[in-house]
Each structure stands twice: as structure tokens, then as C-alpha cells.
Specification:
By secondary structure, the chain is of the alpha/beta class. It has one domain: fumarase (Alpha-Beta Barrel), CATH 3.20.130.10. It is 30% helix and 32% strand. It contains 6 helices and 9 strands; from the N terminus they run E-H-E-H-E-E-E-H-E-H-E-H-E-E-H. The strands form 2 sheets. Strands 2-3-6-7-9 form a 5-stranded mixed beta barrel. A two-stranded antiparallel sheet has the order 4-5.
Amino acid sequence: MAHYNLTTPLSEEDVRQLKVRDTVTVNGHIFGIRDATQIRMFDQNQEPPVDLKGAICIHTAPSLKKVGDRWEKIIIGTTTSTRMERFTPPLMEKYGVRAIVGKAGLLEGSLEAMNRLGGCYLAIVGGAAALETTQIEEVEEVFWEDLHPEAIYKFRVKDFGPLIVAMDSHSNHIYFDVKKQALERLPDIYKKLGVN
């Protein structure tokens, strides 16, 4: 396991060096997205109003307050990614997104796209929204404001993380590994409990 300090936008080389269980700290910009954002992009065929090439996207619906023409942070947490599985391959293929930050991981289609295109999934600790919010220095821009709190958010971050590489570009998937280990232990657990 290694630790990497990455600055956005990411190159394919940046991502290909990462392996499952490595840790990452991010500086630069990350883009907040969620279900409604991606439904507009892929189901309603609207091009995003910002360049996502080399981007890190975080699955979030942040609590923000608009003061004048600026958006101020209240709390910015991360949501579960799995339900947005169908959007990840086209995000990478069509728009050049390199990494997704979220909770609970993605599935086989995303893993295949990450392997083919050079992407990764960076897991964030659930319940760490207070810390996460302090590492987001500013909400620089909000695109598609009508979708708030599921718009596109451009966050400037400093020392964001550490994040765990949970899916890498070499077809490794930490969540699948954990599930496999748990299933292997089940017979012994049942035996100790006296369950047939």
C-alpha cells in the first residue's frame, strides 16, 4: 500500500499507478454530482455546462446557503454510489471523468470501464461529512442551479482525504474481496453457532 497526493485534473497515468488499498489525498477541484445531474445528462441528453475531462466527481447533495451570488457551505456529505452505477461508464467514456468518490462502491460495469479507460473509485468514510466539509475550501461554481441540491458543484479542495482506492484500473475491487472473505468464513461461523 502506498499514499499518493494528487492534483486535478488527473491523467490516465495518475490513475493507473493506483492500486486497491492505496490511499489518496486530493488538491485542486472536484465536482459534486448526483442522480438528477446524471439523469439530465444521460436520460435527457443535455451536455454538462462544464468540462469534466480528468475530473474527480463526488456523489453528493450538499447543504449550501446562497448569499448574494455566492454559495456558502453548511455541510457537504457523500451519498451511496451503487444506485448510480449505470452512469459511471458513460461519464468516463463520453466526458473523460477519471475518478468517482463515494460510499459503498460500484458494480461490474464500472469496474470494466475503469480497467478499459483508466479510472478508479475512491471510498470516503461514511459519517465524516464534518471533516469533509472543512477540506472543501470553497464552492466556486454551481451549474444547473435549478437541480439544487443535485446540481453540478465545482468545489476547490485542499488535502481532501485520505480516500481509499476501493476500485482500481486493474480490475481489483475491495468490496468484492471483502464479500468473498466473508462468504469463506460463513461455514465456520455457522458451525460455532450450531447452525446446519
